[in-house]
Every structure is written in structure tokens, then in C-alpha cells.
Design a protein that fits this description.
single chain, alpha/beta, FAD/NAD(P)-binding domain, 27 strands, globular, binds flavin-adenine dinucleotide, binds nicotinamide-adenine-dinucleotide
Length: about 475
């Protein structure tokens, strides 16, 4: 076969690239050896969001008392809490229905209709210019590796001998884990821990460092408090010595603080959420003249590998493409590669302009530089904030935990934004435009936004840029002077 483009892997990255290429009537072959859609519907964003939505509904019922609404209540710590019955088997069915509904977009039939030639086989390089997919030899003008990643487990003594869940297997469980130990406090760990706690599991998170190490510390603190309020037990800076099977479940043995005895944590289930490994072993990359490291296929800013005709995108890409992985980062990279492959336009990936959202309650969203990153580059930055507590809509919804925080240079150019609070994942959108297009906070402050919305908190944060100006005696004198003219 001699297509123009051969894409390896039909996850978020590969599907995005293959369907966009086919839309331009470019001959494209897509090779996939597992389920269509990769981890995105089956063990990633869609399933996690669907499970999270169920957890959010359960919590909304519990907390409805604040709005004067009850559904059979009991007293917990002197607070009236509505009783919630969770039928976990039906929660599981809801998640599977959502996965099935979204899977239609990724189906072989849809791809065929779009003109994508799909080969269901494992792909591997046999030379710099040829990939084998089963017994098909494919010589394409361009290859795009989009083979994604899978959950990885740490080298923890005893872990290989205990049954554990991962973000791939959790969604097929039909009985609620009663006492869930979550190993790892990155995005996967905290999102799934909070969801399971809200669905009624007793949850402990065990994290080697601190929760969400890459997040703005102030924002992470708000989320940390929310996890504690949800009844989650946090073990941060924990050193796990071993995992063991015990009667009724699994035990993690944690090193005690200096001189103190080891600490034993028992659960009915263990979820390992300690990171992901790229799917690159089966590709025979060295035969293709392609370099890799522990993070995956090494690419430059143009997403090219050491072999000029081969690109890598999505979770399997390392080097200039590394950073928090997400479906939207994968889509963005697919668009860049297509521009280069079809139109020979020079492209440069810009990981800073890709937002990251942790879908907990409250959501934590960021784009561009964090305060810490910006301070490393320059001292001439301005930090602007607006708390949710001073937003009328947040008051109406009892959702006052959170803030908008902007990082700008001295002239107001937006370098980054972090939002923690209800709807942060939606509120970050205009800031993504601001960062990518080099807009200023003055541009954002000048927008007319609907009242009362959470978005107003963004505008108020931008407007606070003018606060020092308003206090300047010269400006006050100018206003006084102009008022004399009627
Ligand atoms: C719990 C969880 C929640 C998440 N939530 C979000 C979220 O809310 N928003 C977000 O944007 N991101 C989220 N992510 C991240 C997101 O799911 C991934 O970044 C994204 O799915 C990666 O897409 P991909 O195409 O690179 O890889 P994958 O989806 O892993 O797809 C790779 C495909 O390649 C195939 N493949 C591998 N090797 C070969 C081979 N040799 N030959 C042929 N085929 C091969 C695989 O079978 C697979 O289908 C989440 C991840 C997790 C774990
Ligand atoms: N909402 C989203 O977009 C979303 C959600 C989930 C995952 N993801 C992406 O998937 C990728 C993987 O995320 P992740 O959370 O699975 O991994 P991660 O690497 O981001 O976090 C893993 C955490 O586990 C901890 N850890 C590692 N070994 C440990 C041990 N032995 N004991 C205790 N703690 C240990 C680490 O300190 C780290 O905090 C990231 O790129 C992330 O951006 C995105």
C-alpha cells in the first residue's frame, strides 16, 4: 500500500488526524489493533466524566438542604444531610451507555464513509520507509505514530501479587468498592478518588509527594480542602513499603514518620494511579530510525521524530510534545502535523498554550504560565485575582469556593490563568484565546459579559489591573480637572 499518510493508533490523536486528512481527500490508512477510540472513551476522559457526573448528582442530592430541599435527611456533624441511595450497577450501566453513544463517532463505519482505510492489526516498522500491519506492507509519504499510553504500576514490593484496579479496569466494576485505596494523587488519582467518595466509597489517597504537583499551589489547596470535606483521607509525602493481601482486601504498609512504627492501611480495593507509560514497545522504532525515551517517541517542536517522514502525537509523544497529556493536546498536535504534511507549513507546538483541567469539584483549570513559572522568567509580572465569594452567581449557587488568578506582564499581556471553582473548565476558554493570541487583560476587561454569571469573576480579575491606576493622585487630579468642563 502506498497512501499519502499512515496513522498508527485510532485514539483521540490518530482519529483526529486521519479524519481531518480524509476530509481533504488525502489517501490515508489508519492502523489500530485494539478498540476504536483508544483510551479516550473506554478508559479516559469520557468514562471518567460520565462516572464523575453520577458522583456530582449524588453530592447535589446530599447538599440540597442548603437550598431548603430535602429527600429524606439525617444529621452528620450537626449538619442536615440528605440521604442518598447509590445503585452502583446502574451507575456502571450509565457509564457504559455514554461510552457506547460517543463510540459511534469513532466507529469503523463512520471512518469508511469518510474515506479512511482502516486496518485492524498491530503496526511495526521494518525500515525507515515501511510499516507492516499484519501481512500488509505500508509505504507512506508520511507516518504518524499515535499509539497512546497505558497505566503503569510502580516497582512496589508485593504489588504484583495483589489484585488492583487501574483507570482502565475501574469502569467495568459493577459493585461499588467499599473501602478504596488510591495510590497516586495526580489528576487520575484525585478525580477518581473524589468521584468514588461521592458515590459512597470510603476513600484514602496515598501520594508520594503532594497532591497535583503541577498545579498552582493556592488552587491545589482549595481542591485539597474539598477532598477532605468529601471525607477522603489524605496520606501525602507517603512512602509505601509494600502491598499485601489481607482477609477481605488489600493492605498498603506505609513507612512511619522518623522512629515511629509503620502505618497499615486496609481497603477492599486498590486503585493504582501512579502515571502512564507510552505504547511503543511493539513498534520496532529502531528499525524505523526513530529515537525514544521513557516518556515515549522523542519529537522536536515540529512534532517530527529523528526520521523526517515520521511524526508522533498524543500520549506516546515525548520531547517537545511532553507535558500533561490530554485529548485536546492530541487534537491540537494532529492539526499541526496535518498543516505540515499537507501544506508544508512550518509548525511549532506550544505546550504552554494548551489548557489543563482537573475535573474535580471544584474544577481546577489552567493555561499558559503559572505564577511560579512566570517568576522564574521575570520579576516584572502582575498577579490579578478575583474570589468566587465576590461573584453574585456563585453566591446564588452556594459555590463560593474558588478564585480566578491571572498572570500578566507589566503592560498587561496575559501570560497565564488559573481558575479553581465551579465551571472552571468552561471559564478557562477565553483565557486560552488570550494566551494564544497575545491579548492583554485590558482587552478582557473591556468585554461586556452577561450578569449574573461565573464568567464575571474573570472580568473582575482583569479589571483589577486598573486598581493601582485609580489610586494614583495624578489620575484623580485629571478627573477633577476634566469635571470642571461640565
Ligand atoms: C482517568 C483519565 C481521565 C482523563 N480525562 C481527560 C479529560 O477529561 N480530558 C482530556 O482531554 N484528557 C483526559 N485524559 C487523557 C486522555 O484520555 C488521553 O490524553 C488521550 O486519550 C490520549 O489519546 P491518544 O490518541 O494519544 O492515545 P490512546 O487513546 O491511548 O490511543 C492510542 C491507540 O493506539 C493503539 N495502538 C497502540 N499501539 C499500536 C500498534 N502498535 N499498532 C496499532 N495500534 C496501536 C491503541 O490500541 C489505542 O487505541 C484522561 C486520562 C485518564 C487516564
Ligand atoms: N483531566 C485530565 O485532563 C486528565 C485526567 C487524568 C489524567 N490525565 C493525564 O494522564 C496522564 C497521567 O496522569 P496520572 O494522574 O495518571 O499520572 P501523574 O504522573 O500525573 O501522577 C501520578 C502521581 O502518582 C504519584 N506516585 C507515583 N508513584 C507513587 C508511589 N509509589 N506511591 C505514591 N504515589 C506515587 C506521583 O507522585 C504523582 O503525583 C497525565 O499526563 C495527565 O495529564 C489528564
Amino acid at each position: 500500500m502506498t497512501p499519502d499518510i499512515c496513522v498508527i493508533g485510532a485514539g483521540a490523536a490518530g482519529l483526529s488526524l486521519a479524519t481531518a486528512a480524509a476530509a481533504f481527500r488525502v489517501p490515508v490508512v489508519l492502523v489500530e489493533h485494539g478498540s476504536m477510540g483508544g483510551s479516550h472513551p473506554n478508559a479516559g476522559d469520557i468514562s471518567a466524566r460520565a462516572l464523575g457526573a453520577a458522583g456530582a448528582r449524588a453530592q447535589a442530592v446530599r447538599e440540597a438542604g442548603r437550598f431548603g430541599i430535602s429527600a429524606g435527611a439525617s444529621q452528620v456533624n450537626d449538619v442536615q444531610v440528605n440521604d442518598v441511595q447509590v445503585n452502583y450497577a446502574r451507575v456502571h450501566d450509565h457509564v457504559q451507555r455514554v461510552v457506547a453513544a460517543t463510540a459511534r463517532n469513532d466507529s469503523a463505519e463512520r471512518l469508511a464513509a469518510l474515506g479512511v482505510h482502516l486496518i485492524r492489526s498491530e503496526a511495526r516498522f521494518i525500515s525507515r520507509s515501511t510499516v507492516m500491519a499484519g501481512d500488509q506492507a505500508i509505504k507512506a509519504r508520511r507516518f504518524v505514530i499515535a499509539t497512546g499510553s497505558r497505566p503503569s504500576a510502580p516497582p512496589l514490593p508485593g504489588l504484583d501479587a495483589v489484585p488492583f484496579l487501574t483507570s482502565e479496569s475501574l469502569f467495568s466494576v459493577t459493585r461499588r468498592p467499599e473501602r478504596l485505596l488510591v495510590l497516586g494523587g495526580g489528576s487520575t488519582g484525585v478525580e477518581l478518588a473524589q468521584t468514588m467518595a461521592r458515590l459512597g466509597s470510603t476513600v484514602s489517597i496515598v501520594e508520594a509527594g503532594h497532591l497535583l504537583p503541577h498545579a498552582d499551589p493556592e488552587a491545589a489547596l482549595i481542591l485539597r480542602r474539598a477532598l477532605l470535606r468529601d471525607g477522603i483521607t489524605l496520606h501525602e509525602r507517603a512512602r509505601v513499603l509494600r502491598a499485601e493481601t489481607v482477609k477481605g482486601g488489600i493492605r498498603l504498609v506505609l513507612a512511619g514518620p522518623d522512629g515511629e512504627a509503620d502505618h497499615k492501611l486496609d481497603g477492599t480495593h486498590l486503585l493504582v494511579a501512579t502515571g502512564r507509560s507510552p505504547n511503543i514497545e511493539a513498534l520496532d522504532l529502531e528499525l524505523g530510525g526513530i529515537n525514544s525515551d521513557i516518556g515515549g517517541v522523542i519529537v522536536d517542536k515540529g512534532l517530527r521524530t529523528g526520521n523526517r517522514r515520521v511524526f508522533a502525537i498524543g500520549d506516546c509523544a515525548s520531547g517537545a510534545a511532553g507535558g500533561p497529556h490530554s485529548s485536546h493536546a492530541a487534537h491540537d498536535q494532529a492539526g499541526l502535523v496535518l498543516r505540515n504534511a499537507l501544506f508544508r507549513l512550518p509548525v511549532r507546538t506550544n505546550a504552554t498554550a494548551i489548557p489543563h483541567v482537573t475535573y474535580c469539584h471544584p474544577e481546577l483549570a489552567s493555561v499558559g504560565l503559572s505564577e511560579v513559572e512566570a517568576r522564574k522568567r521575570s520579576n516584572a509580572i502582575t498577579i490579578l485575582r478575583w474570589p468566587y465569594a465576590e461573584n453574585d452567581r456563585a453566591q446564588a449557587e452556594h459555590e463560593t469556593d474558588g478564585f480566578v488568578k491571572l498572570v500578566a506582564d507589566r503592560r498587561g499581556r496575559v501570560l497565564g490563568a488559573t481558575i479553581v471553582g465551579t465551571g472552571a473548565g468552561e471559564l478557562i476558554a477565553p483565557w486560552c484565546i488570550a494566551v494564544r493570541k497575545g491579548l492583554t487583560v485590558q482587552d478582557m476587561a473591556g468585554l461586556a459579559l452577561p450578569y449574573p454569571t461565573f464568567s464575571e469573576a474573570s472580568k473582575r480579575a482583569a479589571m483589577s489591573f486598573y486598581a493601582p491606576l485609580a489610586a494614583k493622585p495624578g489620575i484623580r487630579r485629571l478627573i477633577g480637572f476634566l469635571s470642571r468642563f461640565g
